[in-house]
Amino acid sequence: MFTTKTYTKDFKYFKEKYGENMERMFAAVSDLYAEYWNDFFHFALFKDENESWESAFKNTHKKYLEALRIKDASKVLEMACGRGGFTNVLAENTSGEVLGIDISRSQLSHTKRFKRPNLRFKHHDIMKVDELGEMFDAVVFMDADCYLPDKRLAVEKISKVMNPGARFLLLGWCKQSGLNQIQEELVLHPFMKYWGIPSLETPENYKKYFEQSGFKIVEITDLNNQVRRDWDFGYESALTGIKKLSIKDLPRLIWKGMRLGGDGIRLIKEQFPAAIYIKVGFDVGFLRYVYFLVEKK
Predict the structure, then answer these.
(1) What fold characterizes domain 4-296?
(2) Cβ neighbours for 25, distance < 8 A, ≥ 6 positions apart
(3) Measured distance CA(17)–CA(109) in Å, rounded
């Protein structure tokens, strides 16, 4: 049984051992996500219940490219680029240089399939983004902010690698403001434990972090209504996996570049109850998917 003490210990580990935690988790689950979700690990925005997934992703990417003013950007950065799918979309839509960084070597191992002269990838930690030694005109960070051990510090460091007038697009997994301890413990903490998430930020706090780091707010929008089908699909995929997977299937999903042993099997197993708790968090409104578009002053 999980207790507040158990959660506190786990979240402390996720924060203090953030790099190790991310490397191990994605070495175990990257291929699982690709098999049961999509090559893009971020959410698609749906106009209505009838829109196809292909159309939703196409329109979502178009919206993000326009928000970043990608055609005018000489240097573009995608943080937590994962398997490189959207980084490739960025490079396809600009003549500028595009860099994708990720802390997970297992994720980056899939980026070799993309061959564009203006596209490159690098194993690098977002919490050390200011050590890249490069400046950017557009920065995007999707669906992975929840893993960062210090969101305020991350925003501050991201600001340091952006030119004046550069745009930063963050698609964030946030928690609803004003939740009490028991609400967070019952609904949010279980999936955070299974996913290795040290904390969730509120939209209001992100707004403060942006303003403190020299950003002008362009747009902040709660997208929960537009991503309902993503939450539902993740839940349904988890149920399908529970019915389909056997213990014999799990070792093939684990990245061979890191020895995880039984711990890798455990990490894969934990993704399925996590998907169920995430659905609960969405249904009660405690979990929010928020679009932040800001501009460096």
Answers:
(1) Rossmann fold (3.40.50)
(2) 195, 196, 267
(3) 22
SS3 content of the chain, % helix, strand, coil (to 5): 55, 20, 30
| Strand order across the 215-222 sheet | 119-123, 97-102, 75-79, 136-142, 162-175, 287-296, 215-222
Which DSSP category does 44 fall into? P
With 70 as the cut, is the pLDDT of residue 5 above it? no
- 53 closest CA partner among 39, 33, 70: 39
Q: Classify 114 as helix, strand or coil.
A: coil
* Every domain of the chain and the residues it spans: 4-296
pLDDT digits (tens, 9 = 90+) for 134-178: 999 999 999 999 999 999 999 999 999 999 999 999 999 999 999
The pTM of the whole model exceeds 0.85:
yes
Q: What is the pLDDT of residues 212-270, one digit of tens each?
A: 999 999 999 999 999 999 999 988 988 888 888 787 777 888 888 888 878 888 888 88
- Cross-strand bridge partners of residue 221: 291
Which candidate, 138, 3, 8, places its Cα nearest to that of 65? 138
Phi-psi region of 285 (alpha: psi -120 to 50; beta: other; left: phi over 0): left
Task: State the average pLDDT for the chain.
Answer: 93
Q: How far apart are alpha carbons 168 and 295 in whole angstroms?
A: 6
* CB distance 120 to 99 below 8 Å: yes
Of all residues in the chain, what percent carry a pLDDT higher than 70? 98
Is residue 139 within 8 Å of 166, Cβ to Cβ?
yes
- pLDDT number for residue 10: 87
Q: Alpha-carbon distance 131 to 157, whole Å? A: 9
